[in-house]
Amino acid sequence: MAGPASKLKLSPRLKALIALPSARGSAIPAPPLAKTRAILDRIRTAGEAGGVGRDTWISLSTATLFTVNSPESICQLYDYATEGNELPSNILTAAIMRETGLKCITFGGVPRAINNLNALRAHLPENVVDGLSKKPVREPHDIPALYQRGRNLWDGIYEPHAQKLVDKLGDSHPDMPVHILNSHYGPLLSDPVGHVGDNDFRLGRLLTSVIAIAALRAQTGVGPQVTSHVFGLKKAVLPDGGADGREIQGQDWLVSDDGVRWLIESVDELSAEVRGDNVQ
């Protein structure tokens, strides 16, 4: 039996207010396909020249487009990244993109992550969807261990200033470091432990920093956080940087100044095109 909530309705006047064009309530449409492909070609080619692999430029581009909030462009990226590839490779691409999108919750917020992940899911061929894991891997079975994973990641990114930053967050609001460590760095940004299915994808420490830089740069207005995560990327290859010996293709170039420039300039070019900043 329907309850009182089912009878609630919005007045036409309120609906019109919510839908005002000045509120920019809709996602950003994709640029013409040829322009998106040309930019992705440049990003991929320059990255491969430095030695990085598909995982890196796909993660970078996905984080940028989630933050800019262009679900149509996310679908263009998937089509570009899977063109001419076999099913196992396409499933892996989808897994990388959806895991990247999930981690973007920390940097761009829940609503954009929901809308862009929904668009990606609706765009995927059913045989790719069938190959993706359906089992959650971030259930809070061991809260102390979850906190420790988050603190380890935090320390790997922010040392030697890690505790100072925690204290500063606590000065702003006593629950801020509690929430950031226990809701973001622990269960979301650090990778799940234990067995992960064959078609799940653990991004790892280095790619998590790539995502952070891309999402924050695309967001604009948060330069100090971009700087912090650039340091975090460079620290990831150090003995106590949190990568735990896991390497990715081309990581030495990626953490160099040339690699970081490629990352940031790629984000700038892609986000500017999608937003229409290049239109005269």
From TrEMBL:
Signal peptide: none
Gene3D superfamilies from the UniProt entry: AhpD-like
Name the record gives this protein: Dol-P-Man:Man(5)GlcNAc(2)-PP-Dol alpha-1,3-mannosyltransferase
Source organism (scientific name): Apiotrichum porosum
Lineage, broadest ranks: Eukaryota, Fungi, Dikarya, Basidiomycota, Agaricomycotina
